[in-house]
Amino acid sequence: MNKLIRRAAMAALISAASATAVTALMPAHAAVPQPKGRAGAAQNAGPQVRPVVGTPLNAAMKLVDMKDFAGALAKVKEADAVMDKTPFEEYSISKYLGFIALNQNQLMPDYTAATAAYNRQVASGAAPDAEKPVMYNIAARLNYQAMAYPEVIKDTIELQKLAPLDEKGYVIFIQAYYNTNDFVNAVAAAKAAVASEIASNMKPSEDVLGLLLNAQIKTMDEGGARQTLDQLATISTRPEVWGQVMDFALGAMGITDHQLLNLYRLSILTGTMKDTPGASDFLAMATIDLQNGLPAEAKAILTKGNKTGDLLNQANMFLAGDQQVLTALAAEAAKQTNGEIDVKLGESYYTYGRFDEAIAAIQKGIEKGGLKDAADAQTTLGIALLAAGKKADAVAALDKAAAAGGAGGQVAHVWSLYGKRAAG
C-alpha cells in the first residue's frame, strides 16, 4: 500500500506561491518622508527601520523594478552588513532576500537562498500580522522542498492559527508528519483536511485520502484503513487503488465462481486484471463464462487478453448456436414459477449488450423468487443497470445486495463503490 504515498510536486507548489503569494516589496519605513505632529506619530506607530538600513533597501526596491536583481541583492547585502539590527530590520532584510531569490530567475529560482531567507523572517519574530500568513505559507513549502520536515510542521502550526490551510498546505503538512514517522499526527492532520474539504462542499482529495490510508496502515488501524480505501475508491480511477479494493473482495471467504465472475467484470472496468504465467484472470474468467453458458463474454474476454487455444475454440463453437439457445431459454423461463432461468436469461442478454432486456429479465426473476443466491442475482442486476447508464438505480440495487453480507455482499459492495464513483 505504500505505493499510495506521493510526494507533492514542490516545484509547482513553490512556483504558484511565488507568483501569487509573495507580498509586494514596499519602501522601507525610515526612508519615507513622515508627516509631523500627533497625527503623523499615530500613523507611524508601527515598526520602523533606521535610515542606514532603509536607504539601501529602498534602492534595492527600485533596482528590482528595473529587473536588476544583482544590483538589488548588492544593496540588500549592504543593509544586512549594518550591526545591531533590530528584529524588524532583520525581518525587512530577509523579506527582500527571499523576494529576490524567488524572482531573480523565474526558470530556476534560488530555493536554497529563499529557504534561508524565509526561515530568517520567521526567526525574527517581527513580521507584521498582515504578512504572517503568506510568510508561514511560503516558508512551509520551501522547507518541505528542503526536506526540513520539523520546520514544515512548526510553520504550518503557526499558519493554522492565522488562516485555513489549502489542499496543498494540508498535503505537505501531512507528509511532513509522515516523513518524521509521526503517524498519529499524520492521521489527525489528514482527517482535519478531509473534514475541511467536506465542510466546503468538496470531495476529499485523492492525495489526502491516500496519505490518510498509509498513515492508518502504519498505526495498525485496519478498520479505519478499510473505510478510507472505500472512500478513496469512490473518487479514484487509479488501478493501484482499485487493485487493493479488489484484493479485499477476492480474499472474501466462501466466494463462489459466479461471485468471482462478477468481480472479474469489475476488474475489466478498473484495469486490475492480472495476467501472469499460470495465473491469468482472463483465462479464469472465460472458464467461468463457459461453465455458465456465456460464450459471448468468454470470447470477448479472451480476445481482450490476447488468448488463443482450446478456450477460445470452445467459445466460438458455443457462440455459433447461442442465439437459438437464448430463444429456448426465454421460452423455458416463461413457464417457470422459479426465477433462476429468468436471471440466467437476463445475464445472457447482458453479455450481448442488450441491457434493457437484461434488466427486465433479471428483475422478473428476482420477483418470482426461489433463487439459490438472491443477493448475487441482485448484484448482477446492479451491474446491468450500471451498464445501461442507470447509475442511481444501479447503486440502490448493489447496496441492497451488499446488505446481505458474506462474500456476495462484499462483491456487491465493491461494485457499489464503483457505481458511486461513476455517478460522480
Share of β-strand residues: under 5%
Q: Poorly predicted ranges (pLDDT <50, ≥5 residues)?
A: 1-23, 29-44
Number of strands: 2
Shape: elongated
Rg over CA atoms, rounded to whole Å, is 32 Å
The largest sheet, given as strand count, sense and whether it forms a barrel, is: 2 strands, antiparallel
Mean pLDDT: 86
Q: Which percent range fits the helix content?
A: over 70%
DSSP summary: helix tally: 23
Strand neighbour order, sheet with most strands: 1-2
H/E element string? HHHHHHHHHHHHHHEEHHHHHHHHH
- The helix/strand class is mainly alpha
Q: What is the CA–CA distance across the termini?
A: 25 Å
Sum this structure up briefly.
The chain has 23 helices and two strands.
What does this structure look like?
This protein is mostly helical and 424 residues long. It is 71% helix and 1% strand. It has a two-stranded antiparallel sheet. The model is unreliable at 1-23 and 29-44 (pLDDT under 50).
